[in-house]
Amino acid sequence: MITVPEIVEDIIRKSLFLDQALYQRIINLSALARVIKPEVEKGVMKEIQLGAIIMALNRLAKKTQRKQKNQQKIFSSAPDLMVRSNLFEITLANSEFLIQKQKKLLDRINMIQNYFLTFTQGIFQTTIIASKELKNKILAVFKGEKIIAQLENLSSITVQLPKGTEFIPGAYNFMLKSLAWEGINVSEVVSTLNEFTIVLEDKDIELAFSNLKRLFK
Question: What is the fold of 81-215?
Protein backbone atom coordinates (compact mmCIF):
# COMPACT_ATOMS: atom_id res chain seq x y z
CA MET A 1 0.00 0.00 0.00
CA ILE A 2 1.38 3.38 -0.98
CA THR A 3 1.96 5.86 1.84
CA VAL A 4 1.48 9.61 2.17
CA PRO A 5 5.28 10.32 2.25
CA GLU A 6 5.74 8.24 -0.93
CA ILE A 7 2.96 10.11 -2.75
CA VAL A 8 4.30 13.48 -1.59
CA GLU A 9 7.83 12.65 -2.72
CA ASP A 10 6.54 11.49 -6.09
CA ILE A 11 4.63 14.77 -6.59
CA ILE A 12 7.67 16.88 -5.68
CA ARG A 13 9.99 14.78 -7.86
CA LYS A 14 7.79 15.40 -10.91
CA SER A 15 8.19 19.15 -10.52
CA LEU A 16 11.26 20.84 -11.97
CA PHE A 17 11.70 23.34 -9.14
CA LEU A 18 9.72 22.29 -6.05
CA ASP A 19 12.59 20.30 -4.54
CA GLN A 20 14.87 23.32 -5.02
CA ALA A 21 12.28 25.51 -3.30
CA LEU A 22 12.13 23.02 -0.42
CA TYR A 23 15.92 23.01 -0.17
CA GLN A 24 16.08 26.81 -0.03
CA ARG A 25 13.12 27.01 2.39
CA ILE A 26 11.44 29.61 0.17
CA ILE A 27 8.07 27.89 0.02
CA ASN A 28 5.32 27.78 2.64
CA LEU A 29 4.77 24.13 3.54
CA SER A 30 1.19 24.67 4.73
CA ALA A 31 0.24 26.38 1.47
CA LEU A 32 1.96 23.69 -0.59
CA ALA A 33 0.25 20.97 1.42
CA ARG A 34 -3.16 22.49 0.66
CA VAL A 35 -2.34 22.64 -3.06
CA ILE A 36 -1.24 19.00 -3.35
CA LYS A 37 -3.81 17.59 -0.87
CA PRO A 38 -6.31 16.48 -3.57
CA GLU A 39 -3.56 14.69 -5.49
CA VAL A 40 -2.27 13.00 -2.32
CA GLU A 41 -5.76 11.83 -1.39
CA LYS A 42 -6.29 10.51 -4.90
CA GLY A 43 -3.05 8.53 -4.60
CA VAL A 44 -3.85 6.93 -1.24
CA MET A 45 -7.60 6.72 -2.06
CA LYS A 46 -8.76 8.21 1.22
CA GLU A 47 -9.07 11.53 3.04
CA ILE A 48 -5.85 12.76 4.64
CA GLN A 49 -5.29 15.32 7.38
CA LEU A 50 -3.37 18.39 6.25
CA GLY A 51 -0.91 17.88 9.12
CA ALA A 52 0.20 14.51 7.73
CA ILE A 53 1.09 16.11 4.40
CA ILE A 54 2.96 18.97 6.09
CA MET A 55 4.95 16.43 8.13
CA ALA A 56 5.83 14.50 4.96
CA LEU A 57 6.93 17.72 3.25
CA ASN A 58 9.06 18.70 6.23
CA ARG A 59 10.84 15.34 6.22
CA LEU A 60 11.33 15.56 2.48
CA ALA A 61 12.80 19.07 2.84
CA LYS A 62 15.41 17.75 5.29
CA LYS A 63 16.17 14.84 2.95
CA THR A 64 16.57 17.27 0.03
CA GLN A 65 18.92 19.46 2.05
CA ARG A 66 21.14 16.48 2.85
CA LYS A 67 21.21 15.48 -0.81
CA GLN A 68 22.08 19.02 -1.96
CA LYS A 69 24.88 19.29 0.60
CA ASN A 70 26.37 16.00 -0.64
CA GLN A 71 26.30 17.33 -4.20
CA GLN A 72 27.96 20.60 -3.14
CA LYS A 73 30.70 18.66 -1.33
CA ILE A 74 31.81 17.30 -4.71
CA PHE A 75 33.31 20.68 -5.48
CA SER A 76 35.47 21.44 -2.44
CA SER A 77 37.08 24.04 -4.69
CA ALA A 78 35.67 25.76 -7.77
CA PRO A 79 36.30 23.65 -10.92
CA ASP A 80 37.84 25.07 -14.06
CA LEU A 81 35.29 26.35 -16.57
CA MET A 82 36.34 26.53 -20.21
CA VAL A 83 34.31 28.41 -22.80
CA ARG A 84 34.32 27.70 -26.53
CA SER A 85 32.51 29.81 -29.11
CA ASN A 86 31.82 29.60 -32.86
CA LEU A 87 30.43 26.07 -32.76
CA PHE A 88 27.86 24.36 -34.94
CA GLU A 89 26.00 21.08 -34.70
CA ILE A 90 24.80 18.58 -37.27
CA THR A 91 22.73 15.45 -36.61
CA LEU A 92 22.80 12.62 -39.14
CA ALA A 93 20.81 9.43 -39.53
CA ASN A 94 23.02 6.45 -38.75
CA SER A 95 24.26 4.49 -41.76
CA GLU A 96 26.78 1.76 -42.46
CA PHE A 97 29.23 4.36 -43.79
CA LEU A 98 29.30 6.82 -40.88
CA ILE A 99 32.19 5.22 -38.98
CA GLN A 100 34.37 5.18 -42.11
CA LYS A 101 33.53 8.83 -42.79
CA GLN A 102 34.34 9.81 -39.20
CA LYS A 103 37.80 8.31 -39.67
CA LYS A 104 38.13 10.12 -43.00
CA LEU A 105 37.24 13.43 -41.32
CA LEU A 106 39.81 12.90 -38.56
CA ASP A 107 42.46 12.20 -41.17
CA ARG A 108 41.59 15.41 -43.02
CA ILE A 109 41.78 17.65 -39.94
CA ASN A 110 44.82 15.96 -38.44
CA MET A 111 47.03 19.03 -38.94
CA ILE A 112 44.50 21.57 -37.65
CA GLN A 113 45.05 22.68 -34.05
CA ASN A 114 42.79 23.96 -31.28
CA TYR A 115 39.52 22.80 -32.74
CA PHE A 116 36.47 21.46 -30.91
CA LEU A 117 34.98 18.20 -32.18
CA THR A 118 32.71 15.61 -30.60
CA PHE A 119 30.82 12.63 -32.02
CA THR A 120 27.83 11.22 -30.15
CA GLN A 121 26.37 8.07 -31.66
CA GLY A 122 22.90 7.02 -30.60
CA ILE A 123 20.80 4.08 -31.74
CA PHE A 124 19.40 5.86 -34.80
CA GLN A 125 21.29 9.16 -34.98
CA THR A 126 24.79 10.59 -34.71
CA THR A 127 25.40 14.17 -33.63
CA ILE A 128 28.58 16.07 -34.45
CA ILE A 129 29.41 19.28 -32.58
CA ALA A 130 32.42 21.10 -33.98
CA SER A 131 34.23 24.38 -34.44
CA LYS A 132 32.67 26.39 -37.25
CA GLU A 133 35.99 26.38 -39.13
CA LEU A 134 35.48 22.64 -39.70
CA LYS A 135 31.96 23.01 -41.10
CA ASN A 136 32.84 22.85 -44.80
CA LYS A 137 35.09 19.82 -44.29
CA ILE A 138 32.40 18.03 -42.28
CA LEU A 139 29.69 18.73 -44.86
CA ALA A 140 32.00 17.55 -47.64
CA VAL A 141 32.95 14.31 -45.88
CA PHE A 142 29.36 13.46 -44.93
CA LYS A 143 27.85 14.47 -48.25
CA GLY A 144 25.10 12.04 -49.22
CA GLU A 145 24.18 11.21 -45.62
CA LYS A 146 20.71 12.11 -44.36
CA ILE A 147 20.87 15.34 -42.33
CA ILE A 148 18.21 15.40 -39.61
CA ALA A 149 19.04 18.79 -38.10
CA GLN A 150 21.66 21.49 -38.20
CA LEU A 151 22.18 24.18 -35.54
CA GLU A 152 24.30 27.31 -35.78
CA ASN A 153 25.56 30.01 -33.38
CA LEU A 154 26.46 27.68 -30.54
CA SER A 155 28.96 27.94 -27.68
CA SER A 156 29.99 25.54 -24.95
CA ILE A 157 31.07 25.51 -21.32
CA THR A 158 33.21 22.60 -20.17
CA VAL A 159 33.35 21.85 -16.45
CA GLN A 160 36.38 19.90 -15.19
CA LEU A 161 34.86 17.41 -12.76
CA PRO A 162 36.82 16.18 -9.73
CA LYS A 163 37.57 12.49 -9.36
CA GLY A 164 34.74 10.57 -7.78
CA THR A 165 31.97 12.61 -9.39
CA GLU A 166 30.82 9.55 -11.29
CA PHE A 167 29.75 7.96 -7.99
CA ILE A 168 27.70 10.95 -6.75
CA PRO A 169 23.97 10.85 -7.63
CA GLY A 170 22.67 14.10 -9.07
CA ALA A 171 26.04 15.69 -9.89
CA TYR A 172 24.96 16.69 -13.41
CA ASN A 173 21.49 17.64 -12.22
CA PHE A 174 23.10 20.02 -9.71
CA MET A 175 24.39 22.09 -12.64
CA LEU A 176 21.58 21.63 -15.14
CA LYS A 177 18.84 22.51 -12.66
CA SER A 178 20.62 25.76 -11.85
CA LEU A 179 20.57 26.70 -15.55
CA ALA A 180 16.92 25.68 -15.92
CA TRP A 181 16.06 27.85 -12.91
CA GLU A 182 17.43 30.84 -14.85
CA GLY A 183 15.48 29.88 -17.98
CA ILE A 184 18.65 28.95 -19.89
CA ASN A 185 18.07 26.40 -22.63
CA VAL A 186 20.68 23.66 -23.05
CA SER A 187 20.99 22.47 -26.64
CA GLU A 188 23.24 19.47 -25.93
CA VAL A 189 25.37 17.91 -23.22
CA VAL A 190 28.51 15.87 -23.83
CA SER A 191 30.49 14.14 -21.11
CA THR A 192 33.57 12.05 -20.46
CA LEU A 193 34.54 10.63 -17.09
CA ASN A 194 35.86 13.93 -15.73
CA GLU A 195 34.56 16.52 -18.19
CA PHE A 196 31.01 17.78 -18.56
CA THR A 197 30.32 20.00 -21.59
CA ILE A 198 27.14 22.03 -21.92
CA VAL A 199 26.29 23.34 -25.38
CA LEU A 200 24.11 26.46 -25.59
CA GLU A 201 23.11 29.20 -27.98
CA ASP A 202 25.56 32.09 -28.15
CA LYS A 203 23.04 34.48 -26.61
CA ASP A 204 22.90 32.42 -23.38
CA ILE A 205 26.60 31.82 -22.82
CA GLU A 206 27.37 34.83 -20.60
CA LEU A 207 24.42 34.22 -18.29
CA ALA A 208 25.18 30.48 -18.12
CA PHE A 209 28.85 31.09 -17.33
CA SER A 210 28.09 33.56 -14.53
CA ASN A 211 25.41 31.22 -13.17
CA LEU A 212 27.79 28.25 -12.98
CA LYS A 213 30.56 30.37 -11.53
CA ARG A 214 28.21 31.57 -8.80
CA LEU A 215 27.02 28.00 -8.20
CA PHE A 216 30.54 26.80 -7.35
CA LYS A 217 31.42 29.60 -4.93
Answer: VC0802-like (3.30.2130)
